[in-house]
Amino acid sequence: MNKSNNGAAKKRRWLIGGLAVAALAAILWASYRPRPLDVETATVAEGRFEQVIEEDGQLRLQQRYLVTAPTAAQLQRPTLKVGDAVKAGDVVAVLAPNAPGMIDARTRNVLQQRVGSADAAVAAARANVQRAQAALAQATLEAERSAQLAKDNFIAPSARDQSRLAREAAAQALKAAQAEQAAAGHAASEARAALGRAEPSGAVQGMWSLKSPVNGRVLKLHKDSSEPVQAGAPLLEIGDTGAMEAVIDVLSGDAPRIAAGAAVQLATGRNQPPLAGQVARVDPVAFTKTSALGIEEQRVNVTVALQAPPEELQKLGDGFRVDARITVSAQDSALLVPSAALVRQGEGWQVFVVEAGKARARAVSFSDRNADSAWVKDGLKAGETVILYPGSGMKEGQPVRVRVAR
User: Fold this and answer.
1) Which one of 7, 144, 147, 189 has the minimum C-beta count within 10 Å?
2) Computed from CA positions of residues 114, 119, 120, 122, in that sequence, does the dihedral angle turn out positive or negative?
3) Three-state DSSP class for 154?
4) Which domain covers residue 217, as residue numbers?
């Protein structure tokens, strides 16, 4: 009886000990077994692959017109403001002649004496004309009398010729006297004009109205008040804000990749739809520009023709900043994987694919890549799930758990 009780007790002790060892082993296994990592994933899918160049630039008018002063004058106070709409032929600026300079009393007296001298010269010239006219009249009578006497053979033909020549000389003398009279008259007018500068009248004569060459808006006022201007001085600028283009400066190393006609998307501001455009031309000359980091770069201007109705462009303006995406190549139905899934492996690349809750390394090759995705050539199929941002702790066979977005 005692033997059977002792055997049963021993079996119970062994059973309890075995269960305790199994429980301890289970606890140790649960404590040290690999735990699933929470990961973000993406699905490999077919789509459009684009290689783009992203740079910033600005809008500018296709044509802008600078209105300048054609001569030295007094600009009247402008009535236009920046942004005002004008039509071709509208008056945009008015010029008045400059006021004559003031002179002192001594100079005025000299000018008055000069006018008197000029008037005396005119009177003398007039008297010379009258004397020449009388001489011509007498020479004409002598010539006619000599001609009649020569016809009746009372005088020799030579006497007739001498009287005729005397009449021609008198006629030339009259012309010379008349020319001297005209010169004296001009000198008198000049003297009076010089004297008139000292006493300007209040009335403004000879106003000159400058008109707009095109329909557009006032972009800039170089002169906003009444003031004297010199010939060629800029007055205001006019342009049509409905006809604009964009200028994007890119690195000179990227310029050869951009072809005329390439599609462009221009972002003009937050919550604003992008503007579509095409590359019109790539400048053949580069320039030096210092970046925000203080590095000198060689840049090239790319001109973009906008494909937007004028009413949309009217909301924008000359010099507005834009962010451009220039498409240099594109491929439809390309197998795409996010660039965030790529991991460098030696000389090649690999991704981690989720299979049965574990991460499996997969070598891949791609035709091209951009900042967002890679165009896969080999190693993946559409519909497979890849891990994003795997990190250095990701190993082959690592259990993973897909993080649910909240």
Assistant:
1) 7
2) positive
3) coil
4) 64-91+209-239
